[in-house]
Structures are given as structure tokens and as C-alpha cells.
Design brief:
Layout: E1 4-6, H1 16-20, E2 26-29, E3 32-35, H2 45-49, E4 55-57, H3 61-69, E5 74-78, H4 82-85, H5 91-101, E6 105-108, H6 110-126, E7 131-132, H7 137-146, H8 160-172, E8 177-182, H9 186-193, E9 200-203, H10 204-213, H11 240-245, E10 255-259, H12 261-273, E11 280-284, H13 302-314, H14 345-354, H15 374-382, H16 392-409, E12 413-418, E13 423-426, H17 428-434, H18 438-441, H19 453-461, E14 465-471, E15 477-485, E16 490-497, H20 499-532, H21 534-537, H22 539-560
Parallel strand pairs: 5-6, 5-8, 7-11, 8-9, 10-11
Antiparallel strand pairs: 1-4, 2-3, 12-13, 12-16, 14-15, 15-16
Bound molecules: iron/sulfur cluster (3 copies).
């Protein structure tokens, strides 16, 4: 099952998701953005960045509802950032609301985090190489996919969610339906990979929607909750994991807290190169920590959320809980390196040439395509991850040169003037029609070559004017169209030479008139003869006269048309 999908109907092909993805895990195929699962680490940035809400996060809310409807005991593990995501509720108030949804028990995931901190504490003293925290599934995904050589540095311990789920099942029975709720999208996939522990995972945004659609009322029985100790309630803020287990005598030089995916990538790169070798690295993919998770569903600022967490931590339980006996919280991480096809240099150069980059100097490296360099983008084209025409500067210059080609080769005179009637553009057809050199008239007044009064009036009104028959210098008759472009303070004048058509129309008119005259002459002659033999022909003569007169009037009418 996919965790993030793109709704084609909502997608407007703006490619923002692609530009915002730090790992270039969004490809463009047939003009549409699509997630490349093997490369994606589920940081959720593309979901947040999509202006159309086209990136959808999978939901397991219906599975939880079904469990409730089936009468199962549903225990919710509530990520500690809930205080920041639901600032309008205290824990008992939120638990009461959740009780109204049919949740049987609510407990802070921080209860599980306490066990994780104990594990980290032991690692800190015993580990022989730098330890990278493994609480954040995005960081785990980054290491397993992009830094598989550092997999031995990942703390071999399950995340607080999995640890807590194991504790709940152990304490409440294997039949308990455990649902995790948090601000994290990657946790949804992590829970699916450990389906025997976590029956469902939902985001805080989804939980908020569920609460909004269900009026629970305050008389609902509150779900029970066990309070977590204060220090582990700091987990969702940057530096909070360290705060839960690092003793004050540890120096800042051998322990690093890093947040934000870009910063995490930088630290991992430095670790790989051997530039740094700290004892412990706390790494959270979201800037500021889980309080700023992509599905927190709360738009409050990070500092405001941080303060909420700190207040909540201060009010935490004073005592530490005893570790449950016989439970193993260790975890083995598996490499899943991204396999990338490296195209031959000749193919890369060919793609670069197709976008007008023949030398290093042509490579603008502007990043508008979503890649850091033209070369990186060319490689992605070869890998089938994006398309040639996502190069914005190339497409713009192509469009401009095409438009220019059409203007230069048009048989119609095309003149562009500004609102002061100063000529900005004067194509070769205009040069020929108005007998003026572009170099001379460009920058001069339109009135030097055309009667500009009507044009000026049309531009002033901002109204398009079409099919005006105008005679210009030299007797040329033209069809004049005026297109004001107010947003650019310009107007386009198109003149189509209709001199020949006009001449042909006049000749045709002349011919019709001559035909009518000839017909009238014949009728008159015929009438004269008819009068002479009137006695013999009687009524037949009158009918002939009527028919001939009708013919004359018909010809006259046609002549007028
Ligand atoms: S950001 Fe959203 S609308 Fe834009 S391409 Fe991506 S999915 Fe489509
Ligand atoms: S979830 Fe993150 S890694 Fe995956 S495609 Fe979106 S931005 Fe890229
Ligand atoms: S920092 Fe927290 S919310 Fe963000 S990806 Fe990691 S675990 Fe999820």
C-alpha cells in the first residue's frame, strides 16, 4: 500500500513537489508528478508544499472505526507532540473526546520512549562508533536507502511507537487493537512494517477530522491514561531525545542534535567522509522536531509549540516507570540502497544538447527544473525520472524564438506600439506595406506611418477593434485589427493587405451593373415588339411582361448586393 499518492484530478502540474523534494524522489512522467517509492523517505515535504492538496496521505481511520464497532479493546498510543497539535485540550480533555470515539484507553507514546532512552543511555557508554538515533523513521529510511554504509551506526533499538505498542500488547493482551496517533507520515509506513505490534496508525490531522465529524459530547467516559515522566515528554522537540538521557557532564562536542532533513543529510555526509565522529547524533527529519511534523494539523508556530511541550514536560510524572520484564526492544535495520542507473556520458551530453547546452557556459544551473544542476537534470532525464521540457529557460527561449519566427515571417504587417504610440516592433511585412525601414521607424511615432487617431482611441478604451477597412499611403487598402495589451502597456496592430480583393469586388460590381443595363435594353425592345402584336397575343403578352419585369427587378436587387 502506498503511503502518499497523487490525485491526478487535483494536480495542476506545477512541479512544486518535485522542486521541494530534497532527494528528488518525485519524477515527471507524461507531464505529471509521481512519487518514486524506492527513493522516497516519506518526509512529507511534498504533501505540505503541494498548493492543490493533490498529495494524499493514506488513512487507516476506517480500520480503527471498524475495531471500535466490533467491540474490540482499542488502545491509543498518543505521540507526545499532541500537546502542540491539540493546544485547545488538556490530556484528560482529549482523552475524554477520544473515549467518545470509542477508544478504550489512551496512553502517551512517551511511556515507550522511556525504554528507548534507557537503551540509548547504555549505547552512549558502550558504543565504539558514533550512534545515530533511530526514533525518526525518515532518518532510518535515509540511512538504509542513501547511507547503507552507515547502517551499523543506527541505534539497534525500536522506535518509541513500536516499543510502546509492544508494552501495550504485553500488558493488555495480544487481542488489544493498538492504534498510534502522531504528526508523522513516515510512521504510517513504519507501523505497516510492524503490523503485529501496531494495528493501525493515523495522523493528528486525520484524528482532528475524525473528532470534527463525530460529536462526542463531554459525558463520554474518559479513556484511562498513564502519565509519562517529564524528561521523555521532550522527545518531540529538537534536542529533546538527548535531554531525556544525557547527563550534564557530557560535552557538547561529542553529542550532536540535528533537525531538518537537509541538515540531517549534511551531518550524515560529514560522518561518511570521516569529517566528524561524535559519540551520539540525535537526528530528526522535521525542522524543530516532531512538533513540526507534516501531518500535525496545527498551524501554530514552532516556538509556540515548543513552549507547549516544555510546559507539559514540567508537569510530567516525577517517577520513572519500571521496565517490563522479558521484553526485547532491540531492532535490526536492513539496507535498502537506492539502485540508480548511471547513464553513459554520451547520452548525458546528448540530453544537454537537446536543451541548448553545448558547452559548460550554456549550463545555467538555475534549479528551476527542480535539480541542482543542468547535468543532474540530464541524468534524471536519462533515468526516465523527468522530461526534457522541464528546463524553464530553454522552454522560454524556445517559445520566444518561435513567436519571433512567426512575427518575422507573417504576411501581415505587425506593429507593436506602447501607450504613447511609440513603435516598439515593426515586422518585415510592415516595412514592405508602409515602405519604411524597421531600423528607422522603431522608437519613432506611429503617426509617421499611419493615421494613429483611431488606434490611439481604441488603446485608450482598452477595446479590441477588428475588421476596419482603411486606406493607407500609396492607396493600399488594409483590414486593420487593434489588440490592446494593457498589462504590458502595449498594443498590437495587424494590417492585412486587401487591395486585390477590393479591386476584384469593384470589378464584379461593375459587371453586374452592365448586365442589368443590357437586360433592361432587351426588355424594352421586346416590349416594343410585343405592343405591336398585342392584339394577336392577348393575355400571353401580359404574362411575358410580368416575367421580364420580375427578371429585371431580380437583377437590380442582386446588383445592389
Ligand atoms: S505540487 Fe501538487 S499540484 Fe504541483 S505538481 Fe506536485 S502534486 Fe501536482
Ligand atoms: S515524502 Fe519527502 S522524500 Fe518522499 S517524495 Fe515527498 S518530499 Fe520527497
Ligand atoms: S521528526 Fe518526527 S514527525 Fe518528523 S519525520 Fe521524524 S518522526 Fe516523523
Amino acid at each position: 500500500m502506498k503511503t502518499i499518492t497523487t490525485q491526478k484530478a487535483n494536480c495542476r502540474d506545477c512541479h512544486r513537489c518535485m522542486r521541494s523534494c530534497p532527494l528528488k524522489a518525485v519524477g515527471i512522467v507524461n507531464g505529471q508528478a509521481r512519487l518514486i517509492d524506492e527513493k522516497c523517505v516519506l518526509c512529507g515535504r511534498c504533501v505540505v508544499e503541494c498548493p492543490q492538496g493533490a498529495k494524499q496521505v493514506t488513512s487507516q481511520v476506517s480500520a480503527v472505526k471498524e475495531a471500535v464497532a466490533a467491540g474490540r479493546f482499542v488502545a491509543m498510543s498518543l505521540a507526545p507532540s499532541f500537546v502542540a497539535a491539540f493546544p485547545e485540550y488538556t490530556l484528560p480533555q482529549l482523552a475524554a473526546k477520544l473515549g467518545g470515539l470509542g477508544i478504550s484507553l489512551v496512553e502517551e507514546t512517551a511511556v515507550g520512549a522511556e525504554e528507548v532512552s534507557r537503551f540509548y543511555s547504555r549505547l552512549l557508554t558502550a558504543a565504539e562508533k558514533p550512534v545515530i538515533s533511530a526514533c525518526c523513521p525518515v532518518v532510518v529510511n535515509v540511512v538504509t536507502k542513501y547511507y547503507p554504509d552507515l547502517i551499523g551506526n543506527l541505534a539497534p533499538v525500536a522506535s518509541p511507537m513500536l516499543v510502546h505498542a509492544k508494552m501495550l500488547k504485553h500488558r493488555l493482551g495480544a487481542d488489544t487493537f493498538v492504534v498510534f496517533a502522531g504528526p508523522c507520515i513516515a510512521k504510517l509506513a513504519e507501523s505497516r512494517d510492524s503490523a503485529s505490534l501496531v494495528d493501525a496508525a493515523i495522523t493528528f490531522r486525520q484524528l482532528r477530522e475524525w473528532l470534527a465529524e463525530t460529536a462526542t459530547g463531554d459525558n463520554s467516559p474518559p479513556a484511562a491514561a498513564i502519565s509519562a515522566p517529564g524528561p521523555v515528554r521532550y522527545y518531540p522537540i529538537a534536542g529533546g531525545i538527548l535531554k531525556s538521557f544525557v547527563r550534564s557532564e557530557s560535552t557538547a562536542t561529542d553529542i550532536i542534535a540535528v533537525d531538518g532533513l537537509d541538515n540531517c543529510l549534511e551531518v550524515l555526509a560529514a560522518l561518511r567522509k570521516g569529517e566528524i565522529a561524535p559519540r551520539f547524533i540525535e537526528a530528526l527529519a522535521c525542522s524543530g522536531g516532531c512538533i513540526n511534523g507534516p501531518a500535525s494539523g496545527c498551524a501554530d508556530s514552532v516556538p509556540a509549540k515548543k513552549l507547549k511541550v516544555a510546559e507539559f514536560a514540567v508537569a510530567g510524572a516525577a517517577r520513572h516507570h519500571k521496565s517490563p520484564a522479558g521484553l526485547d526492544f532491540s531492532r535490526c535495520h536492513t539496507q535498502a540502497p537506492v539502485q540508480e542507473f548511471i547513464p553513459p556520458e554520451s547520452r548525458i551530453r546528448e540530453v544537454l544538447r537537446q536543451t541548448g547546452k553545448y558547452s559548460k557556459e550554456d549550463e545555467k544551473n538555475c534549479g528551476a527544473c527542480g535539480f541542482n544542476s543542468c547535468r543532474e537534470k540530464a541524468v534524471a532525464v536519462c533515468q526516465g525520472l523527468t522530461e526534457i521540457d522541464t528546463c524553464v529557460p530553454y522552454m522560454r527561449s524556445k517559445a520566444e524564438s518561435l513567436a519571433n519566427f512567426i512575427v518575422q515571417h507573417s504576411l501581415n504587417a505587425i506593429i507593436v506600439v506602447d501607450s504613447k504610440m511609440i513603435v516598439q516592433e515593426f515586422n518585415p511585412a510592415a516595412e514592405k506595406m508602409l515602405n519604411r525601414q524597421q531600423a528607422i521607424i522603431k522608437g519613432g511615432k506611429l503617426s509617421e506611418v499611419l493615421d494613429s487617431r483611431e488606434i490611439s482611441a481604441a488603446i485608450g478604451k482598452g477595446e479590441k477593434m477588428t475588421d476596419r477597412r482603411v486606406t493607407i499611403a500609396g492607396g493600399t487598402v488594409v483590414n486593420q485589427t487593434i489588440i490592446p495589451v494593457p498589462e504590458h502597456d502595449l498594443a498590437i496592430i495587424v494590417l492585412t493587405d486587401i487591395t486585390v480583393q477590393e479591386k476584384n469586388a469593384r470589378e464584379l460590381e461593375q459587371m453586374k451593373l452592365q448586365t442589368v443595363e443590357k437586360a433592361t435594353e432587351i426588355i424594352n425592345k421586346q416590349m416594343h415588339v410585343a405592343q405591336e402584336i398585342a392584339g394577336l397575343l392577348g393575355e400571353t403578352t401580359a404574362e411575358t411582361k410580368a416575367a421580364l419585369l420580375e427578371l429585371v427587378s431580380l437583377l437590380k436587387a442582386k446588383g445592389k448586393n
